[in-house]
Amino acid sequence: MSPLATAWGTVGHATVATIAQSYLTPAAQSYVSGLLGSGVTMASVASWADDYRYTTAGRFSAPFHYIDAEDSPPTSCSVDYTRDCGTGGCVVSAITNYTQIVNDGRRTLTNRKQALEFLIHFFGDITQPLHDEAEKVGGNDIPVLWNGGTTNLHACWDTQMVEKDAGGNSASVITSFSNKLITAINSGAYSSQKASWVTCNNIKTAQTCSLQWAVDANKVNCQYVLKVDETNQELSGSYYTGAVPYIELQLAKGGYRLGAWINALAAAA
Question: 75: which residues sit within 8 A by CB, 6+ positions away?
């Protein structure tokens, strides 16, 4: 996958983190404050991993943002850990690894803080369908148009479509957009679905759970993202309209799962 791929962009990642923070137990709120620092929001560190990967120290983490599913969309969508998680690691192995590190008392506070920041980010990455896909470098090599300008399919899913749906990229927009999805989870369209999103929430089986989440998001590539060849097509019209329900569902899933995971981590700490 291209190093340009940064799942969901700032708005998407901050939305996942904001949703998650709203579901933290009091114990988990204290747990997060103890690692990130008093008053530091999860949203404020949600894109740290994307910045870190471009530093010399953080270059090792680049493969952790995705898993390159070698499937055949739109005919067949699947994720296989042995087949798809490369020797340098992937988002599934990263969630597994940092779940262990964040509660490891032998680690420094800095190591554990970094582990939590990675987890906050990777729970967003793993729900973005094209981060669970090898086809055309996760969509980076599919040129498309957005409002007449040239971009690629991956970037549209990361940033342009999310920001259009949210209404911008300011902090107030992120708060409003997150609250809309939280309401849908609590009492709206997702209220009857949310329990199914966290059926796998055992921090001791992190690889099993995160692989399930990758498989879940990967299915969307066959259902919509890659269903039709959109090469050189304008995506700001009907394609965007059709994508909105998937974008919002995936962001809601990522946030709700992250909140439940951190609650479990806090309970085990």
Answer: 222
pLDDT band at 213 (very low <50, low <70, confident <90, very high): very high
Separation between Cα atoms, residue 42 and residue 29, nearest integer Å: 10
From CA 56, how far away is CA 187, in angstroms rounded? 45
Neighbouring residues of 98: CB distance < 8 A, sequence distance ≥ 6? 115, 116, 118, 119, 122
Which of 249, 235, 246 minimizes the C-alpha distance to 142? 235
Contacts with 107 (C-beta within 8 Å, 6 or more apart), sequence order: 101, 115
pLDDT band at 7 (very low <50, low <70, confident <90, very high): low
Give the active site residues: 8, 13, 50, 53, 65, 121, 125, 131, 154, 158
| Cα 161 to Cα 154: distance, rounded to the nearest angstrom | 10
